Amino acid sequence: MTVARIIHYHHELPLDFDQLLLGIHADARADRMLDPFTQRFHQVVDHWTSRPGFSCAVSYEGREPTGFAYGAPLTAGREWWRGLLGPAPDAAATFGLSELMVRPAWRGQGLARRLHDALLEERPEELVCLLAEADQPRVRARGESWGYRPVGPTLPVAGSPAYTVMLRRLRPTSS
Fold it and tell me: Mean pLDDT of all residues in the chain?
């Protein structure tokens, strides 16, 4: 299966965009849909799509959505990695990569990496940060192979699984 295209979405989101993301999520996380935290994904989508600077890359095979990656700039001084690094990087501009999902039928073809790179290719921030579920060592290993480094554990919200905060430079530091 070859994914023909990746489309970028920003502030002007199509009608029912949330349903597009929720459909991919339901397929990608079908084995976890009874988990209460997984069932709150619609709240996560509402939160992120309303953030300033929201950006999303969605892959399609024909008209079929096959995966997505999205995020938004993190609030300066409140980035996920603050407090885990000492000294903290000088860069104040950090993009938070919130979600990256690929439907099962399209996994194992490099699509996750294509979505990741497409989402980040034009970001102006110096850093990108993501949270990898602590009980998913393959996800953490993938992040490390993409240039991220683990910086510490976090439990971002009540009822969430434990995560490892991972950080990567997008741009060289400005002098």
Answer: 85
